Amino acid sequence: MEASEYKTFAEVYDILNYDMPYNLWLDIINEVKGDAASILDIGAGTGEILKMLRAKRKLGIDNSEEMIKIARENDPVSEYRVQDMVTMELDETFELITATADVLNYAPSREAFAAVLKNVYNHLSAGGVFIFDVHTEHKMQNDFNYELYSDSTDDIFYTWQTVPGEEELSVWHELTFFIRNSGDLYKKYEETHYQQTYKHSEILKMINEAGFIIDKSFSDFDITNVITEVAERNFYILKK
């Protein structure tokens, strides 16, 4: 099985993510960003997070051309480029780097995950801050264990099947979309995406190997909530 690029999903991403708690991510970012004059958003998607942040220099990257096209229309103030987080070469550093909504879980292997951390370190200014979040072990084992989800709007219906991958704590997301073209005619689209997460202890080890100082780690959008076994999302705030 091979992972797809975000093509059809990019077109309907904002419609289907109407309940994404962007405000919770923004609260965390704004609490730690200080007076950062430059921000890099990795896996920027359609630009919903970056457009709400204030800074003199704002750059968003994503490996999906379709996502970047939408982000440029959605947020003409920021700059957006098609870049892969594993291999990005931007020839500049940033005071704040963000990777929200489990972006790092799209790194296709442990080696790639570690490479992203090292790449971020190299693009971070001295004293800069890096914020990212990942799916937890609990979520992978319970919410993504052959679960089937679906949602719809007036013009879109989709199903989302989760299938555990061969690697530990990995999952294949099999997405099927039915999008209304005209009248009552719908066209079918399919995409497959891969994610992998790691135990908290493994992530701490990779963070340390990349050279970061760990400022905070917590679960489920609550900075005062220490990492727990039963949680959906773990957050890491790192400094250089």
Description:
A hairpin with a 5-residue loop joins strand 7 and strand 8 (170-182). This protein is of the alpha/beta class. The model has no long low-confidence stretch (mean pLDDT 91). The protein starts with 7 loop residues before the first helix and ends with a strand. It has 6 helices and 11 strands. Residues 39-128 form the Methyltransferase domain.
In summary, what is this structure?
Residues 39-128 form the Methyltransferase domain. By secondary structure, this protein is an alpha/beta fold. The chain is built from six helices and eleven strands.
Task: Set down the secondary structure blueprint.
Elements: H1 8-16, H2 22-33, E1 38-42, E2 57-62, H3 65-74, E3 79-82, E4 94-99, H4 110-122, E5 124-135, H5 137-142, E6 148-152, E7 156-164, E8 170-182, E9 185-196, H6 200-210, E10 213-219, E11 233-239
Parallel strand pairs: 1-2, 1-4, 2-3, 4-5
Antiparallel strand pairs: 5-11, 6-7, 7-8, 8-9, 10-11
Helix pairs in contact: 4-6
Key words describing this protein structure:
4-stranded antiparallel sheet, single chain, 7-stranded mixed sheet, globular
Strand element count: 11
Q: Give the termini separation.
A: 37 Å
Q: What is the count of helical runs?
A: 6
**Major sheet: order of its strands?**
3-2-1-4-5-11-10
Order of helices and strands: HHEEHEEHEHEEEEHEE
Mean of all residue-level pLDDT scores: 91
Biggest beta sheet attributes: 7 strands, mixed
